[in-house]
Design goal:
Length: about 120
């Protein structure tokens, strides 16, 4: 990822139409903020293409919960990267209820494994 995860905060938030992944620095750091923003754009592009190898690598798993269905349903899901004041986010949206369930499963696993809060503060 390129930034210290202990000086940054992850949030994996479920939403009615999908969810969002947030990563921000805890303090101002312009270089790290730009690194995070680039990382979030990379994630959005990879996920849009059905490529979930990065979460598998990070968590040392071949099948991170939710990603199999997200890959199959990728035509129904959009991944939108957005800049935030000290980092960025990827908003994950769909109208497909099966995709929403998969996204929520993915986010719940991420939240647990990263010991991250549910909602942005």
């Amino acid at each position: 990822m390129g930034v210290n995860q202990y000086t940054s905060q992850h949030v994996f938030e479920p939403l009615p139409d999908g969810g969002r992944i947030i990563l921000q620095r805890k303090e101002d750091d312009s270089a790290a903020t730009e690194t995070i923003r680039a990382h979030m754009r990379t994630i959005a592009t990879a996920f849009s293409n059905g490529n979930f190898t990065l979460p598998g690598f990070v968590h040392a798993m071949s099948d991170v919960p939710g990603t199999g269905a997200m890959k199959k349903l990728r035509a129904d899901i959009t991944y939108t990267p957005r800049d935030l004041p000290r980092g960025g986010e990827v908003v994950i949206s769909t109208r497909n209820p099966d995709a929403v369930k998969a996204i929520h499963d993915f986010l719940a696993f991420q939240r647990m494994d990263h010991r991250a809060p549910m909602h942005a503060q």
